[in-house]
Amino acid sequence: MSLSEGESRLAETERHHSELRDHYTAGVPGALFERILAALREVGKDSGTLRPEDMAPVDEFHTLGRVATLELARMAGITVQSKVLDVGCGVGGPARCLAAEFGCRVTGVDLFFEYCEAAMELTLMTGLDHLASFCCADATALPFLDAIYDVVWSQHVSMNIEEKRELYGEMNRVLKSGGTLALYEVLLKPDGPPGPIHLPVPWARTAATNFLVSKEELRELLREAGFIDIGLKDVTGDALRVFKKLESRTRERGLPPLGTHVLLGLDFEAMIYNQLRNFQEGRLSVSQVAARKS
Ligand SMILES: C[S@@+](CC[C@H](N)C(=O)[O-])C[C@H]1O[C@@H](n2cnc3c(N)ncnc32)[C@H](O)[C@@H]1O
């Protein structure tokens, strides 16, 4: 790569990260951790005995929440011995869930300091800081040595990342030989109606942060990156049921004090509606994925 190609690639990455930052941090004013704390206070859950499940409506930032995390943990065969890397960890809900339920060690990485900071503070509040830790990093350039994790885990992150080869390549690199990749992915349905998906959705307000692939494209990317025994479990039916309930409850009663809107802002209501339409019209599916490094 020439110097000018390198410079323009760097500028492109910076532009993309700034668009992502706007999406994940600019929706609501004020520090992220303080907003979460205020919402927890509002529902009477800011005491010293805070458990991960108390925060699940806000810190399990993916379709089907904590249920999906526990199901993926079962598919990935997580045990107390597993050394887990959570790529795109958000505010750390899944990492705390795995640490509390299985007693395993989890390192979470996220692109944004605000998310890592909230993840660390909430982990201290739950007394799980001896098992879960967090740092800021880009999923496509992980700051870890080769072959050190038993499980690489990532839920609802790849849809923000255009450089899929780098992403899955890095996940493969840091996994031990025979280690497990556990993914939870929103996927494009190739047989869906023509035209783009309805936006905004929880990971994108505009096309600039939306990079979806189909099930077959994902399988191919994982094979190319060096994964074998790729198993996908389609959970779109469950996702559709949950979004239907969420949409009608929000229309009737508004958003509850504790929910994803604390992270994203009040247009989360429009995101719920659009995501329901995307599922109903057969544009998107959701799959839990487990694979092994050969
Ligand atoms: C929808 S949230 C999911 C958070 C978390 N995995 C969960 O399920 O609770 C997507 C997260 O991916 C992070 N993310 C997006 N692109 C990333 C990248 N290139 N490297 C690291 N994190 C990234 C975002 O900052 C955000 O926290």
State the main characteristics:
11 helices, binds S-adenosylmethionine, 46% helix, Rossmann fold, globular, alpha/beta, 294 residues, 7-stranded mixed β-sheet, single chain
Spatial arrangement of strands, main beta sheet? 3-2-1-4-5-7-6
Main β-sheet, in a few words? 7 strands, mixed
Q: From the structure provided, what is the oligomeric state, counting identical versus distinct chains?
A: single chain
Please name the fourth-level CATH homologous superfamily: Vaccinia Virus protein VP39
The run of helices and strands is: HHHHEHEHEEHEHEHHHE
Characterization of this structure:
The chain is of the alpha/beta class and 294 residues long. It has a single domain, classed as Vaccinia Virus protein VP39 (Rossmann fold). 46% of the residues lie in helices and 19% in strands. It has a seven-stranded mixed beta sheet with strand order 3-2-1-4-5-7-6, with helices on both faces. Strand 4, helix 7 and strand 5 form a beta-alpha-beta unit. 42% of the residues are buried. The structure holds S-adenosylmethionine.
Blueprint (SSEs and pairs):
Blueprint: H1 3-25, H2 32-42, H3 52-59, H4 65-76, E1 83-87, H5 93-102, E2 105-110, H6 113-125, E3 132-136, E4 149-155, H7 164-174, E5 175-188, H8 215-225, E6 227-234, H9 236-253, H10 261-264, H11 268-280, E7 284-293
Parallel strand pairs: 1-2, 1-4, 2-3, 4-5
Antiparallel strand pairs: 5-7, 6-7
Helix pairs in contact: 2-6, 3-5, 4-5, 7-8, 9-11
The protein binds S-adenosylmethionine.
